[in-house]
Amino acid sequence: MTPLKAGDTAPKFSLPDQDGEQVSLTDFQGQKVLVYFYPKAMTPGCTVQACGLRDNMDELHKAGVEVLGISTDKPEKLSKFVEKELLNFTLLSDVDHSVAGEFGVWGEKSFMGKTYDGINRISFLVGLDGKIEKVFDDFKTSNHHDIVLAYLKGL
Can you list the positions of beta strands (E) in 20-64? Predict the structure, then answer.
């Protein structure tokens, strides 16, 4: 697993959202997009991370950033996650993990002594030019939004 780096061109992708509608990265041309990969909807860590982004969406929008969350969950599960947590951003379904693979976040993980393949929790800020501006790979689920906002305010 080798995640994309700052300066790399973001893969152009199109995935179904929580409502089954196709959403493409190119839909957000002229905007910065935080593409954040998370392992599984409705798990404790992923919920904390998503709610942190939800609660800071005004700040992210003020900084000109849209948010797209990507997991391998099916749209139906994403829809339940959005409804349960009142999420105010788009979640995308990458069931075959092809987009996760293109971003280099699909790979070996270990949990409680077991090794398996899955999504690694990494976020990418895609700049106005379609290139990766910043990679966020050192954060806790509880401070992900703080790390992103600190970077945006430091620009």
Answer: 22-24, 32-37
Question: Which active-site residues does the annotation give?
Answer: 46
CB 13 within 8 A of CB 90: no
Identity of residue 135: V
CB contact at 8 A, 98 and 104: no
What values do phi and psi take at 117, rounded to 5?
-90, 140
CA atoms within 13 A on the CB side of 99: 27
At 112, is the pLDDT very low, low, confident or very high (cuts 50, 70, 90)? confident
pLDDT value, residue 110: 83
Write down the H helix ranges in the chain.
44-55, 57-62, 75-85, 98-103, 144-153
**pTM of whole model > 0.70?**
yes
pLDDT, tens digit, for every residue of 53-62?
999 999 999 9
